Amino acid sequence: MKTNLEDWFKEQRDCFDIAEPAEDHQLRFLEKLQKQEPKKKKTLDWWKPLLSAAAVVLLIFIGYLGTATEKHTDLAAVSPEMAKTKDFFTKTIEEELYNINEARTPETQKLVDDALKQLEILEKDYQELADDLSTSGEDKRVIYAMIANFQARIDLLNTVLEKIESIKKFNTLKNYEDALL
Predict the structure, then answer these.
(1) Which pLDDT score is estimated for 62?
(2) How far apart are CA 53 and CA 56, in angstroms?
(3) Fewest CB atoms within 10 A around its CB: which of 40, 82, 117, 122?
(4) Quick count: other Cβ atoms within 10 Å of Cβ 108?
(5) CB 114 within 8 A of CB 46
Protein backbone atom coordinates (compact mmCIF):
# COMPACT_ATOMS: atom_id res chain seq x y z
CA MET A 1 0.00 0.00 0.00
CA LYS A 2 2.91 2.31 0.72
CA THR A 3 4.14 2.05 -2.81
CA ASN A 4 0.73 2.88 -4.22
CA LEU A 5 0.56 6.06 -2.18
CA GLU A 6 4.10 7.07 -3.10
CA ASP A 7 3.37 6.41 -6.75
CA TRP A 8 0.25 8.53 -6.57
CA PHE A 9 2.18 11.47 -5.09
CA LYS A 10 4.80 11.19 -7.81
CA GLU A 11 2.12 11.26 -10.47
CA GLN A 12 0.34 14.24 -8.91
CA ARG A 13 3.46 16.30 -8.18
CA ASP A 14 2.77 18.75 -11.00
CA CYS A 15 -0.71 19.44 -9.65
CA PHE A 16 0.47 20.78 -6.29
CA ASP A 17 0.93 24.52 -5.80
CA ILE A 18 4.46 24.78 -4.48
CA ALA A 19 5.15 28.36 -5.51
CA GLU A 20 6.21 30.72 -2.75
CA PRO A 21 4.36 34.02 -2.30
CA ALA A 22 5.94 37.21 -3.56
CA GLU A 23 8.27 39.09 -1.22
CA ASP A 24 5.88 42.00 -0.74
CA HIS A 25 2.97 39.69 0.05
CA GLN A 26 3.17 40.29 3.79
CA LEU A 27 3.39 44.09 3.35
CA ARG A 28 0.36 44.16 1.07
CA PHE A 29 -1.59 42.04 3.52
CA LEU A 30 -0.75 44.34 6.44
CA GLU A 31 -1.69 47.45 4.39
CA LYS A 32 -5.07 45.96 3.52
CA LEU A 33 -5.60 45.10 7.15
CA GLN A 34 -4.83 48.65 8.26
CA LYS A 35 -7.12 50.18 5.64
CA GLN A 36 -10.12 48.38 7.03
CA GLU A 37 -12.13 50.30 9.58
CA PRO A 38 -11.63 49.03 13.05
CA LYS A 39 -14.71 47.24 14.28
CA LYS A 40 -16.71 48.98 16.93
CA LYS A 41 -16.37 47.54 20.35
CA LYS A 42 -19.51 45.72 21.36
CA THR A 43 -21.22 47.66 24.09
CA LEU A 44 -24.01 45.15 24.62
CA ASP A 45 -21.82 42.31 25.87
CA TRP A 46 -23.35 42.61 29.34
CA TRP A 47 -26.80 41.70 27.94
CA LYS A 48 -25.85 38.10 27.27
CA PRO A 49 -25.25 37.14 30.90
CA LEU A 50 -28.28 39.19 31.93
CA LEU A 51 -30.51 37.32 29.46
CA SER A 52 -29.16 34.00 30.68
CA ALA A 53 -29.85 34.95 34.29
CA ALA A 54 -33.37 36.10 33.40
CA ALA A 55 -34.04 32.79 31.65
CA VAL A 56 -32.87 30.86 34.71
CA VAL A 57 -35.06 32.97 37.02
CA LEU A 58 -38.03 32.44 34.70
CA LEU A 59 -37.52 28.67 34.69
CA ILE A 60 -37.28 28.62 38.47
CA PHE A 61 -40.48 30.67 38.74
CA ILE A 62 -42.34 28.36 36.36
CA GLY A 63 -41.12 25.35 38.31
CA TYR A 64 -42.30 26.93 41.54
CA LEU A 65 -45.75 27.61 40.06
CA GLY A 66 -45.96 24.01 38.89
CA THR A 67 -45.25 22.65 42.36
CA ALA A 68 -47.25 25.30 44.21
CA THR A 69 -50.55 24.49 42.50
CA GLU A 70 -52.98 22.42 44.49
CA LYS A 71 -53.21 18.74 43.86
CA HIS A 72 -56.41 17.95 42.03
CA THR A 73 -58.15 15.19 43.95
CA ASP A 74 -60.89 13.23 42.29
CA LEU A 75 -63.59 11.01 43.70
CA ALA A 76 -61.59 7.97 42.56
CA ALA A 77 -58.68 8.99 44.81
CA VAL A 78 -60.76 8.75 48.00
CA SER A 79 -61.11 4.98 48.15
CA PRO A 80 -61.41 1.94 45.90
CA GLU A 81 -65.18 1.92 46.46
CA MET A 82 -65.43 5.53 45.33
CA ALA A 83 -63.33 4.68 42.27
CA LYS A 84 -65.85 1.96 41.39
CA THR A 85 -68.71 4.38 42.00
CA LYS A 86 -67.15 6.96 39.72
CA ASP A 87 -66.54 4.33 37.03
CA PHE A 88 -70.16 3.20 37.27
CA PHE A 89 -71.53 6.72 36.93
CA THR A 90 -69.11 7.59 34.14
CA LYS A 91 -70.04 4.51 32.11
CA THR A 92 -73.74 5.11 32.67
CA ILE A 93 -73.43 8.71 31.52
CA GLU A 94 -71.47 7.64 28.44
CA GLU A 95 -74.16 5.07 27.57
CA GLU A 96 -76.94 7.62 27.98
CA LEU A 97 -75.06 10.13 25.81
CA TYR A 98 -74.62 7.45 23.16
CA ASN A 99 -78.35 6.67 23.26
CA ILE A 100 -79.20 10.35 22.96
CA ASN A 101 -76.88 10.82 20.00
CA GLU A 102 -78.39 7.76 18.32
CA ALA A 103 -81.92 9.07 18.86
CA ARG A 104 -81.13 12.62 17.76
CA THR A 105 -83.32 13.98 14.98
CA PRO A 106 -83.79 17.47 13.53
CA GLU A 107 -86.90 17.84 15.72
CA THR A 108 -84.94 17.01 18.89
CA GLN A 109 -81.74 18.87 18.04
CA LYS A 110 -82.51 21.90 20.21
CA LEU A 111 -83.44 19.67 23.16
CA VAL A 112 -80.16 17.74 22.84
CA ASP A 113 -78.10 20.93 22.53
CA ASP A 114 -79.70 22.34 25.67
CA ALA A 115 -79.00 19.12 27.53
CA LEU A 116 -75.34 19.19 26.48
CA LYS A 117 -75.04 22.76 27.78
CA GLN A 118 -76.53 21.66 31.09
CA LEU A 119 -74.04 18.77 31.20
CA GLU A 120 -71.17 21.23 30.72
CA ILE A 121 -72.43 23.27 33.66
CA LEU A 122 -72.66 20.14 35.81
CA GLU A 123 -69.13 19.15 34.74
CA LYS A 124 -67.79 22.56 35.81
CA ASP A 125 -69.58 22.17 39.13
CA TYR A 126 -67.98 18.74 39.50
CA GLN A 127 -64.53 20.22 38.88
CA GLU A 128 -65.15 22.82 41.59
CA LEU A 129 -66.23 20.05 43.94
CA ALA A 130 -63.05 18.14 43.10
CA ASP A 131 -61.02 21.22 44.02
CA ASP A 132 -63.01 21.51 47.26
CA LEU A 133 -62.31 17.85 47.97
CA SER A 134 -58.58 18.40 47.70
CA THR A 135 -58.69 21.37 50.07
CA SER A 136 -61.21 19.92 52.54
CA GLY A 137 -59.34 16.69 53.12
CA GLU A 138 -61.97 14.28 51.84
CA ASP A 139 -64.98 15.89 53.53
CA LYS A 140 -67.97 13.53 53.29
CA ARG A 141 -70.31 16.38 52.37
CA VAL A 142 -68.19 17.13 49.31
CA ILE A 143 -68.10 13.44 48.38
CA TYR A 144 -71.90 13.24 48.63
CA ALA A 145 -72.19 16.40 46.53
CA MET A 146 -69.97 14.84 43.87
CA ILE A 147 -72.13 11.71 43.80
CA ALA A 148 -75.25 13.87 43.64
CA ASN A 149 -73.68 15.71 40.68
CA PHE A 150 -73.26 12.41 38.85
CA GLN A 151 -76.85 11.47 39.68
CA ALA A 152 -78.09 14.84 38.40
CA ARG A 153 -76.32 14.24 35.11
CA ILE A 154 -77.91 10.81 34.73
CA ASP A 155 -81.35 12.19 35.64
CA LEU A 156 -80.94 14.95 33.06
CA LEU A 157 -79.98 12.48 30.35
CA ASN A 158 -82.87 10.15 31.25
CA THR A 159 -85.31 13.06 31.06
CA VAL A 160 -83.95 14.04 27.65
CA LEU A 161 -84.29 10.46 26.41
CA GLU A 162 -87.89 10.32 27.65
CA LYS A 163 -88.71 13.59 25.89
CA ILE A 164 -87.09 12.37 22.68
CA GLU A 165 -89.17 9.18 22.84
CA SER A 166 -92.37 11.16 23.43
CA ILE A 167 -91.54 13.43 20.45
CA LYS A 168 -90.97 10.33 18.31
CA LYS A 169 -94.27 8.80 19.44
CA PHE A 170 -96.08 12.06 18.75
CA ASN A 171 -94.58 12.26 15.26
CA THR A 172 -95.46 8.62 14.59
CA LEU A 173 -99.03 9.17 15.77
CA LYS A 174 -99.32 12.34 13.73
CA ASN A 175 -98.01 10.56 10.61
CA TYR A 176 -100.48 7.72 11.22
CA GLU A 177 -103.41 10.14 11.55
CA ASP A 178 -102.31 12.01 8.41
CA ALA A 179 -102.18 8.71 6.54
CA LEU A 180 -105.72 7.85 7.62
CA LEU A 181 -107.12 11.15 6.47
Answers:
(1) 75
(2) 5
(3) 40
(4) 19
(5) no
